[in-house]
Please model this.
Amino acid sequence: MLAVDLKIYRNSALRASPDPLMALREIVEFPDPRLRTKARPVTVFDAQLTQLIADMFETMYEAPGIGLAATQVDFHQQLLVLDVSEEKNAPMVIINPRIVDSKGSQVYQEGCLSVPGIFADVERAESVRVEAQDIDGKPLVIEADGLLAVCIQHEMDHLVGKLFVDYLSPLKRELVRKKLAKQRRNADSVAASA
Ligand SMILES: [Zn+2]
Model:
């Protein structure tokens, strides 16, 4: 159902003449060492930042995904975009986030645009209170639970160079690395023979 909704969204978005200023960014994939970079705080809220945010939304919706950290497009400042709504009509920008309170725990089967095709159960807080800044640098407080809380915690991990596969055992993580390497080899051979 979600996949169908996304498809409709993407088609109608394309029909509504896409903003020519927006561009897809390349998503860095595990085990690329750039994903281990610790992001610095955003200090300049200017047109360049707005452009990057627009590109990140375009890239996230196209993938499709429900969240994207700047780290994943090789920009190492503390910036996240997400949209966990089924209709893909609730975009959120979270800048310089800090978790100031968290409660409970939940297990959710997570995936990641930087670890394509891999899904694994990860335990995280059930609810979080986050202090952050919005696209203009104004203070922002977010009370999140359920999927939104999972997504925020997952994306915030990216900003400190952490990936959801880090929660797996070393053996499982090695299997993920091998599976991705195999996927890439297969994709390359298809491209070469096309
Ligand atoms: Zn991710």
Notes: Residues 1-18 have pLDDT under 50 and may be disordered. Residues 170-193 form the longest helix (24 residues). Residues 112-114, 154, 158 surround zinc ion (CB under 6 Å).
